[in-house]
Here is the input.
Amino acid sequence: MTTNEFFGKSIFLSNWFSILLVTCVAVLLRCLVAKFDVAKYLWGHNNEEFVSNLANNSKEGDCEEYLSALPEVEHVPYFGATITLPGGSKQFYEMANNRHSVRAFKPHPIPAFEVIENCILAAGCAPSGAHTEPWTFCVISNKDFKHRIRHIVEREEEINYAQRMSKQWRSDLRPLKTNHVKSYLTDAPYLILVFKQVYGFTKSGKRKQHYYNEISVSIAVGILLCALQAAGVSSLVTTPLNCGAALCRLLKRPINEKLLVLMPVGYPSDNCLIPNFKRKELKDIIFVN
Amino acid sequence: MTTNEFFGKSIFLSNWFSILLVTCVAVLLRCLVAKFDVAKYLWGHNNEEFVSNLANNSKEGDCEEYLSALPEVEHVPYFGATITLPGGSKQFYEMANNRHSVRAFKPHPIPAFEVIENCILAAGCAPSGAHTEPWTFCVISNKDFKHRIRHIVEREEEINYAQRMSKQWRSDLRPLKTNHVKSYLTDAPYLILVFKQVYGFTKSGKRKQHYYNEISVSIAVGILLCALQAAGVSSLVTTPLNCGAALCRLLKRPINEKLLVLMPVGYPSDNCLIPNFKRKELKDIIFVN
Here is the structure.
C-alpha cells in the first residue's frame, strides 16, 4: 500500500493538493505585498524591512503600560557647537585626507593608553537610535591574547581565501596585496575589537531593543578613526569573516554582542607600504539640488 | 472523487508524504548547518552570513580570468599621520563631546556651500571594503524639493507612529519628544541624503560587488558628523522608515542606491531644546585586556 492510501482516510490529508495550492498562493501574495523585496537581502541589509519586523514582532498593548528605556530627562537650551576647529571644515578635510589604512605596524613606540581612552570616549559621543549607545570597545594589548586572536583569524582567513571568498572577491583584493597571514594582529601595540550590542537590558533585566545598532556602531567607528588620526595614530578597519563567534568566546562577550570590526592600532612599520589609490573626486560623490 | 484520488495515479504524487518528509529533513539539516542562525536576521544584520552568500552566489572560474575592480596601483611608502591636532585625542574628544543632535533649525544664516563640500570630501576619505567608496551624498537646498521630501517623510511617519512602530518603540522615543511632524526638513538650510551603493559597475558595465557597503557608508557618516562639528554646523541623523523608495524616485537615484540616512544640516533655532541625556561612562563602554 502506498503512503497515499495509508494517509488517504483523513479529509485534511486527502485534500493535501488543494491545501498546498492555497498555501502557495498565500506565500505568493505575501511576496507581492513585500514588493518583491526578497532580493534586497542578497544585496544589502534593508533597515526598513528590519525595523518593520521589529515593530511587528513586538507585543502590543496600551502605550502607557510601556516604560521608556531612556530616562525622562528635562530638555535644555542648546545654542550650537562651541568647540570647533580654527580652520573649520577645510582643516578637518585635510586631516581626514591624511589618514590611510595601514597593514604593517611596529610594536614600539606604544601610543599612551590615555590616547586610546580619549579616542574611545570620542567614539562614544556618536548618535545612536533612541540614544541606546549600543557599543563595546575591547582594547587588547596583552601579548598572549593578541597571539590567540591572530590564531583564530588566520585559521579562518586561510579557509576564507581558499573557499569562502569568490574568485571575483579575491581578484578585487589583489591590488591590496592581502592574504591570510595577518602579522599586524601581533605587531600592532593595540587591537580594538568593536562590538555591536544587538539588543540590551533595562535595569529590571527586561530585553530592550537597540534600533539601528549596526549603523550607530559604524558611525562610532568613523569618529574613532578621526580621533586616532587627530592623535597621529594609524589603524586599519578589518571585518574578519567567520571569526565573530570564536572572538566573542575568547573575550567572554555577553550573548547580545556581535563583532562589528577588528582594528589594529599603532604606528606604521618603518618599511610600511600603502597602495597609491586615488580617492573619488567630489563631483563623483555629490549630487546637488 | 477527492483531489487525492485524482492525482493518485502518479508515482510521484502518490508518495507525496514521503517526498514532503525528505524535503523537511533536508531543510532542517540546512538550518543545522547554518548553526540555527535564523534568529540573527531578527536581531541584526550578520555580515559573515551576508558575505558568505555573496561568495557562494558568485560564479566561479579561474582566478586569473577575473579582473580586479580596482586598478593595480603601485605601493608607496607611508610614514604615518602628519596632519593631526595640536591637542591630539583630548582636543578631538572635547570637540566630539560638544556635538549634539538638533531637531530645530533656523533657515538663516546658511552655512557656506564650500563648508558642506569640504565636509563631504572628508566623509569621502572613509575606508571602504576593497576601496569601493560606495557612497553618494545628495545635498538639497532647493525649497520645493525640501517641501516634497517633507511631504513624503511626514506621510510615512504618520503611519509609522500609528501602525508600524511598536508601542515599546514609541515609548522608548517618548523622552526625545518626537512625532511625525518634521519641520526641520523645511527649516534646515540643507538636507544631506546619504545613499549606499549596494553594488556598482565596472568601466565595462559589469556589476561589481560592494563588500560591507552599509558599514563603509555609516563610517563615512561618522566622519561627516565630525567635519560638520569642526565647522560649527549642527545636524541630525535620521533614518526615515519606509521612505527610501519614494525618496530615491524623487531624487532620481540609480537602482543600485539605497537611502541610508537623511540629515538636516544648519544652525539650531533660537529656542532649540535638546534632551539632557548623560553619555555612558568610559568604564561602561570599554573592556581592557
Chain B is about 45% helix and 15% strand. Residues 143-164 of chain B form the longest helix (22 residues). The beta strands of chain B are 75-77, 105-106, 135-140, 190-197, 199-201, 207-209, 234-235, 257-268, 273-275, 286-288.
